[in-house]
Design a protein that fits this description.
This protein has 311 residues and is an alpha/beta fold. It has 7 helices and 19 strands. The chain folds into 2 domains: 181 residues, FAD/NAD(P)-binding domain, CATH 3.50.50; 120 residues, FAD/NAD(P)-binding domain (3-Layer(bba) Sandwich), CATH 3.50.50. Helix 1 runs parallel beside helix 2 and helix 5 runs parallel beside helix 6. Bound molecules: NADPH dihydro-nicotinamide-adenine-dinucleotide phosphate. NADPH dihydro-nicotinamide-adenine-dinucleotide phosphate binds next to helix 5.
């Protein structure tokens, strides 16, 4: 074996709550797991604000702090955590062959996929043009730059609602643009949005174009779906919070995916269509998508990997 090729019993891809929980359990079961953190170490929680619904944190905790604690717990039991992105996998026979952008090739006896899901974008040309110049996918990361200004946020789910209330604390005014006449967000989040005086709902509407010049975003043109009429809002920032898509490109054609590209698992388990490959967290769950459910399936995946390896 060349020095860049190694053999591991359990390889984990992804470092959100699912990946780190799988690592904690796999390490304690002496599987000596190796984890590739992926594109966004710590996963989606590193770009959220307060987490108030993860049991065990009665006073709440920020997403980045919580993920740092997950990481430290995984390290404490000997997980090898690598800063790197997996670039290809071959699941056609065991050991599975996994290559990463650190130049290493890993032969893995078992594989736990916890690559999560990534933010979706509107897909309009001007969104791309002003990305990082007023268009953002993360209020917590970029809200600071819009203190005292007017901004827009697109979406009607919990993320949009949470980010709108966060932005409302910093900004003069937040226009919340939603394509329907009611929010998808939980009742608690809806209550927060509707009771925040500087959030204005723009119902039944979609952004048609992000407006701007060399200095960045100056506004957003919004079309009312019902009337067909367009209206320009003068804003300096446009935050997009319209949901996620699963990070499954690496596995297309090798694992069974569902109609919206999430990894299919055998009900009640994390087993995939390939024996020895397990999937945990948002990459296989478009329904619950919570940190606590991701952590739960991460635990299941490690237990299943251990039983698979010892049987
Ligand atoms: P969701 O999929 O729940 O919501 C996406 C929103 O964006 C929907 O309102 C949807 O509209 C809208 N949308 C989707 N595509 C487009 C488009 N192309 N143009 C315009 N609007 C669009 O995603 P979230 O990220 O909000 O939440 C994901 C999961 O995470 C949920 O289960 C949520 O409950 C959870 N979450 C929980 C939090 C908490 O408990 N603190 C915080 C954040 C998220 P429509 O409603 O019409 O489909």
């Amino acid at each position: 074996m060349s020095e860049n090729t190694e053999h591991v019993r359990c390889l984990i891809i992804g470092s959100g709550p699912a990946g780190y929980t799988a690592a904690i359990y796999a390490a304690r079961a002496d599987l000596k797991p190796v984890i590739y953190q992926g594109m966004q170490p710590g996963g989606q929680l590193t770009i959220t604000t307060e987490v108030d619904n993860f049991p065990g944190y009665p006073k709440g905790i920020t997403g980045p702090e919580m993920m740092e604690e997950f990481k430290q717990q995984a390290e404490r039991f000997g997980t090898q955590i690598r800063f790197g992105v997996v670039t290809s996998v071959d699941l056609s026979s065991r050991p599975f062959i996994v290559s990463a952008d650190d130049g290493k090739t890993v032969k893995a006896e078992s594989l736990i996929i916890a690559t999560g899901a990534s933010a979706k974008w509107l897909g309009i040309e001007s969104e791309k043009k002003f990305m990082g110049m007023g268009v953002s996918g993360c209020a917590t990361c970029d809200g600071f730059f819009y203190r005292g200004k007017e901004v827009a946020i697109v979406g009607g789910g919990d993320t949009a609602a949470e980010e709108a209330t966060y932005l409302a604390k910093l900004c003069k005014k937040v226009f919340m643009i939603h394509r329907r006449g009611e929010l998808r967000a939980s009742k608690a989040m809806q209550h927060k949005v509707f009771s925040t005086p500087n959030i204005e709902m723009i119902w039944d509407s979609v952004p048609e174009e992000v407006l701007g010049d060399d200095s960045g975003v100056t506004g957003v043109r919004v079309r009312n779906i019902k009337s067909g009429q367009s209206h320009d809002f003068q804003v300096h920032g446009v935050f997009v919070a319209i949901g996620h898509k699963p990070n499954t490109e690496l596995f297309t054609g090798q694992l069974e995916l569902d109609e919206i590209n999430y990894i299919k698992t055998i009900p009640g388990s994390t087993r995939t269509s390939v024996e020895g490959v397990f999937a945990a967290g948002d990459v296989q769950d478009h329904y619950y998508r919570q940190a606590v459910t991701a952590a739960g399936t991460g635990c299941m995946a490690a237990i299943e990997a251990e039983r698979f390896l010892t049987n």
